[in-house]
Design brief:
Order of helices and strands: EEEHEEEEHEHEHEHEHEHEHEHE
CATH architecture of the largest domain: Alpha-Beta Complex
Oligomer: single chain
Radius of gyration: 20 Å
Number of strands: 15
CATH class of the largest domain: Alpha Beta
Bound molecules: NADP nicotinamide-adenine-dinucleotide phosphate
Structural class: alpha/beta
Helix content: 25-40%
Strand content: 25-35%
Length: 334
């Protein structure tokens, strides 16, 4: 097979802003497969806030992306050539495929073979992908909501946030979302069925607003933002509240800003706060996927997507996501 690959590779690290020109487009010829490998024609790649950390020099839970390598990302695609008896031509897979048209991978790079179903392929990167799995793990395994609990979610209209809000409704909770615009608020109320939504650009005092909307206090808080939104919501937590720290997109990674000390809040409220890293749940990926799929097929989970076209649009889509102008799961159709 004589195929030309197009890859988006990292050229420079952010200093500290993530800009389109940190990346370069290169082309080369797809090499021959080695034993155990297979070749995936990539259909969609994922754009994620975590990429800001992956391309920086400051170490976190994974190695920084190397220069001149395809940008690390999840993707979905179809196997078109194989030297692995467990992965056949025609199988669809989801896993670490990178920002490129063709990806040579080994089984360890693949999260799951996508079962044959009539679900749109791209949903396997959204509500049925890492974002849905993250929402499920954080809400159900860490927050453990009870019927009637009040659940607050930041980035409520986004991919993880909208899944959290919808799963909380499946568990009969009262849901309050925080987002940045009236357009996103509309989606939160109408597509993701939040009970209340606060547009933080319109209502500056989130803490007072929460006291009006939820005088009974907040039992579960799923935070994707950090910073001032986090501080305001923490002022309203209930006794025995459960707080999951899933993301810090609203905070610079370095240097970490100072904020209120929450020790006394946690003490007085006997509350629990826990960080979430989805990699810790990869051994439960298929199990959680099947539960999400069931809800999706029953119409209980809506999957909103914001798709750009052509692999060369990936850097622009990342900048857009980090500016908060995406409306739904940010994807690139390759
Ligand atoms: N812990 C894990 O394993 C894990 C896994 C996946 C995702 N996450 C985290 O989950 C969060 C959401 O990810 P996603 O993929 O679903 O993205 P998303 O919510 O679809 O998109 C990102 C959203 O973040 C908000 N945002 C962007 N810049 C911001 C800023 N400076 N201040 C406040 N908000 C800002 C915007 O929402 P608004 O317009 O509503 O403000 C934007 O739409 C991220 O923090 C991500 O890192 C964590």
């Amino acid at each position: 097979m004589n195929l030309t690959n197009t890859k988006i590779v990292l050229k420079r690290r952010p200093n500290p802003e993530v800009l389109e020109d940190l990346f370069d487009k290169i082309t080369d010829t797809v090499r021959e497969l080695n034993e155990e490998e297979f070749l995936v024609e990539v259909s969609y790649v994922s754009i994620d806030p975590a990429m800001r950390g992956w391309i920086s020099t400051v170490g976190n839970y994974s190695e920084p992306v190397a220069f001149n390598e395809p940008m690390r990302s999840f993707g979905v695609g179809k196997i078109i050539s194989t030297k692995n008896i467990k992965f056949e031509v025609g199988d669809f897979v989801v896993g670490w495929l990178g920002w490129q048209k063709y990806s040579i991978v080994k089984p360890k790079n693949i999260q799951m073979k996508i079962p044959e179903n009539d679900v749109p392929l791209s949903a396997n990167l959204g509500v049925l992908g890492l974002n849905g799995i993250t929402a499920h793990a954080g809400l159900l395994d860490i927050c453990k909501p009870n019927k009637g609990d009040t659940v607050v979610v930041t980035t409520a209209a986004g991919s993880v946030g909208s899944a959290v809000g919808q799963i909380a409704k499946i568990f009969d909770c009262k849901t309050i979302g925080i987002t940045s615009s009236n357009e996103k608020k509309f989606f939160c109320l109408n597509e993701f069925k939040y009970d209340h939504v606060i547009n933080y650009n319109e209502i500056k005092d989130i803490s007072s607003e929460l006291k009006k909307i939820a005088p009974q206090g907040i039992d579960c808080f799923f935070d994707n933002v950090g910073g001032e939104q986090f501080d305001a919501i923490m002022e309203n937590i209930n006794i025995n509240a459960r707080v999951v720290v899933c993301g810090t997109i609203g905070m610079p990674s370095h240097p970490i800003p100072n904020g209120p000390r929450i020790n006394r809040t946690l003490l007085v409220k006997r509350a629990r706060i826990q960080g979430l890293l989805i990699l810790d749940y990869f051994n439960k990926y298929s199990e959680i996927y099947n539960e999400l799929l069931d809800w999706y097929k029953k119409g209980k989970l809506n999957n909103k997507e914001d798709i750009s076209h052509g692999i060369e649009t990936a850097p622009k889509s990342l900048v857009k996501l980090l500016n908060g102008s995406n409306l739904g799961k940010q994807l690139v159709k390759v």
